[in-house]
Design brief:
The radius of gyration is 17 Å and the shape is elongated. The protein contains three helices and no strands. It has one domain (about 5-90). The protein has helices at about 5-30, 35-60, 65-90. The chain is mostly helical.
């Protein structure tokens, strides 16, 4: 089963407003988050959604370089989670 270009364009047109609304809500939570975990969770969700959208754009533009970019972005956010969790646990960034 093949996916035509018009189906991908329709999918992007439908999902783009959903992604924009999600990004707006995540940005508000990241800026107004009362605690550090709220801010980190908002940034995580925003970045994972961005990585998923990069994969959709890679399919649309037929550009395979966007997929490793999305993987690197997701791994970078995971490293950020570990860094923040270690900081919150020990309140210092030593060894």
């Amino acid at each position: 089963m093949t996916v035509s270009e018009s189906e991908v364009i329709t999918f992007i047109i439908i999902t783009l407003p959903i992604y924009m609304a999600a990004f707006t809500l995540y940005a508000v939570r990241a800026l107004k988050g009362p605690t550090i975990p709220d801010t980190v969770l908002a940034i995580d969700a925003m970045t994972y959604d961005l990585a998923a959208f990069l994969v959709v754009l890679a399919i649309f533009f037929r550009s395979p370089i966007l997929i490793p970019t999305a993987i690197v972005l997701a791994l970078w956010v995971y490293a950020l989670d570990i860094y923040v969790a270690k900081y919150l646990e020990s309140k210092e960034m030593g060894e």
